[in-house]
Every structure is written in structure tokens, then in C-alpha cells.
Amino acid sequence: MCASLIVTIGAQNAYVLRQGILRSHVGKIVVFCILSDFALVARYPRFVHALLYVGLAYLVWFGIGALRRAWKPSHQSIDIASSGAASTLSARAALLPAIALTWLNPHVYLDTFLLIGTAGGREPEEARLAFAIGAMFVSFVWFIALGYGARTLAPLFKRAGAWRVFDSIIGAMVIGIAITQVRI
């Protein structure tokens, strides 16, 4: 169950995948995402609720940015073999979207704390620690595989058209997630 929720490509995973393809600060982003999954934000439900609409606004903004990149061909093809790195982003510039997509994303809270937390809470007391360790292990393996495995997709993304398709899908998906999370 935990794997099916963590492995689903959402805004956070799409960003990790993108940075992995670009080979841009992958280690820092992967470590941040793993540690964030390990954090116990569920102890602060008012904080999580207050961030819901800020997070939804950020998801829409991120989705519009992805759609803009898709329709405005500013992508250059990447040539990792000759350049060694495809992005000149600073670590801070690479981590800020990861932070926002992790901590402001209501989807992360729904999956990690509501669904996984509820399932873990249903386990017998003696099995809860094993459940939590299993969930953290899945997160650990997934983010490492996603971040560093993305480089195998780099040859596909040597074409600007592939980036346009990728950004179109991500933009539509992220805006769709935001719309489905609105609570009226």
C-alpha cells in the first residue's frame, strides 16, 4: 500500500524526475524528500490545514509554469555526455521548488499522513513500528531510484519536443490535483 502511494507520479515526484534527468543537485533533492517523508508533520494538523490553500495556489502556479514551458519552446536539448551536467542552477534554486512541492502539496499530506498514517494506526500496537519502517524504506528506495534512475531517460530528453510533452503532462496533472483538492 505504501509503495502504491509513494510511487505515484505527482508534483513532487515529477520534480525529482526532472532534476534527475537534468542531473541537477539530485542528491540534495533526494535527501530532502526522504527526510521530509520521515518527518512527523501529522502532529501539527492546524499547520497542515492552514497550508492547504497556500499549497493549492502553489500547485496551480507550478502547473501553469510547466504548461508555459511546454508551449514556449525555451528548452534546449541536453547533452550530458559532453557537458557533464545539464543545469547551472544553484543548490538553493534547485531545492526551493522541492521544498514547496513537498511541504505545500496537499497531496503529500493526504498520502503520507492520512492514508498511510491511518493504515499504520490500524495495525496492532506491536506491528506499528515495522509498518513505519517499511513505509520509510519504500520512500528511501523510491526517491533514490527516481532521482538517480532518471538519468537513463536523458537520451530521450535530448529533444526539445520530449520536454514539451513532459511539461504538458506535468502541468495538466498538477493543476488537476489542485482542482480536486479544493474544499468548498
Topology:
Layout (H helix, E strand, L loop, with lengths): L1 H5 L4 H12 L3 H13 L6 H27 L8 H4 L7 H13 L2 H17 L5 H22 L10 H22 L3
Helix pairs in contact: 2-3, 2-6, 2-8, 3-6, 3-8, 4-9, 7-8
What gross morphology would you assign? globular
The total count of strands amounts to 0
The mean pLDDT is: 77
Overall tally of structural domains: 1
Rounded to an integer in angstroms, the radius of gyration calculated over CA atoms is: 17 Å
Q: Could you list the spans in which at least 5 consecutive residues all have pLDDT below 50?
A: 80-86
What series of H and E elements makes up the topology?
HHHHHHHHH
- Helix proportion of residues, in percent? over 70%
Please report which band the strand proportion falls in: under 5%, 5-15%, 15-25%, 25-35%, 35-45% or over 45%.
under 5%
Number of helices: 9
What class do helices, strands and sheet pairing give? mainly alpha
Q: Biggest sheet, in brief?
A: none
Oligomer: single chain
Question: How many angstroms separate the termini?
Answer: 29 Å
